[in-house]
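In this section we walk through a basic example: taking a raw amino acid sequence and producing a predicted 3D structure, encoded as discrete structure tokens. The instruction is simple. Fold the sequence below.
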Amino acid sequence: MPLSRSPAHSADTAPWMAYRQPLVRDLAWVLASTPLLALRQSHVHWLDGGWSARAHAKSGDWLAALDQDPAPLQAALAARHDPRLGSHFEGLLAFWLGWQGNPLYRLVGHALPVRGGNLTLGELDFLVEERASGELQHWEVAVKFYLGVQPGGDPAHWVGPGLSDRLDRKLSRLLSHQLALTRTPEGAALLRQMGLPPPRPVCLLKGRLFYPAGCRPADWAPTHALPGHPAGWWCDHAAFRHGYANQPLRWIRLPKTHWLTPVTADDAAVLIGDALDADALIEALVQAADNRATAVIGLGPDHNEVTRGFVTPPGWPQDSA
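The resulting token sequence is shown next.
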């Protein structure tokens, strides 16, 4: 059964694992991890793996300083008062874009509502100025975790753990609504009020794709997936027992607060009381009677994360639709 490691980075060499502070590790992951997709489009610029490597490299000294004193980052995230993972991701990116010493971008606006009459039509995630070119850009960003349920590359075959989200639907909303907001009359009026020219639309889609255990990822990866994107596995109860019952791992149902970066022994200290062997984990999932896919990690004898995936009930996703 495959380990949850990006083809580009092992858990030991991933650049975000160089930092001691969990929030700084998350911030480094937001910058350095390879995005999931980059579509080839003339009207939208998709940030890719080269962008991620450059953004992290240009921020190395700043991240190291934050690792020594994370108080400014902690305060900025606490002020958001929103525990959702998407908000956490956006808050980390906002903190980086708002860094006065950022050599790549200047933050012009964040979370700007676009209104028509008494209705809010949407919100611009970020307006940024690229320092090198002076170009104004409209960024829409997202962090997503999808499980592949059929091979062939169709984004419709990649679904969220609760089946309420799907990759093709997210792409459609990004392109037809979110990234198009500045081209609506209301969005154009907002830009005029701010004294800004029409911006270039930019998309950043990060997260992790979970492949069926034992599959050949090349047969399953969605169209336009970038090489080196973060990846994991998924399997049902029976396959999980078969693959892991005789391995000396302890398993934890993973809170969303830990979905971005691997759990270290220091992190695991607060989670280890909930760790179970493979059989006991499945029994707990059966008792919970949850029809959703459950995020799990396996901890080795040193309490560091060894593998990461989703365990699904029998018949998932058909019996859970």
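Looking at the output, two observations stand out. The radius of gyration is 20 Å. DSSP finds eleven helices and ten strands in the chain. In the next section we compare this with other chains.
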